[in-house]
What does this fold into?
Amino acid sequence: MRLIGKYSISSALRWCLGFANVFVMLATGIMAICLAASIISPDFAAGFIDGMRNLDGSDARDLHWPERLTLLGAFLACGFTWWIINRLRRILLSVNQGDAFEFANVKRLQGVGLGLMGIQLTALMLALVAPHVMGESVSDYDFSLGSWLGILVVFILAEVFRQGSAMRDEQLATV
It folds into this structure.
C-alpha cells in the first residue's frame, strides 16, 4: 500500500480523523450547550454536575465558579481537539495532492502547535479546578515534559515547512 496519494495510508488516516472529528464536534457542541446553560440557567448546569457526582440533584443550589470553570475547561479541551484534528486533515489532504510544502501547511502546523499548547493549559486548569467540583482531593498536575517537547517539535516542523515552501517557490520561479 502506498504512503501518499489516492487509496493510500494517508488517505485512510485522513478518513479516520474525519470520522473522529464528527464525535469531537458533537462533544464540543454538547459542552457549548452545557456552558451556555450554566450562564442562562444555573440550575440546569448544577443538576448536570450533580449527575456526574452521582447525587440526586433534587435540591436547588447555586452554581459555583469552579463548576463553571470545569465546564469551560471541558469545552476548551473539546474545541482544541477539534481544531487540531481539522488542521491535520487539511495537511494530509495537501500531502495526498502532492503539495506538502505549500505555505498554508506552515500556518496549519503552527495552528496544531497552538492547539496542543491550549490542551496542555486546559489540562492544568482542569487539574486545579475539577477535583473541587467532583468532591475529591486536589490532584496534582502531571507535568509532561514529553508533551511540551512534542509541541516544540511541531513548531520546529512548521519552520522546516516554511523553508521548504520558500525553496519550492524559488524553484518554480527559476523554471
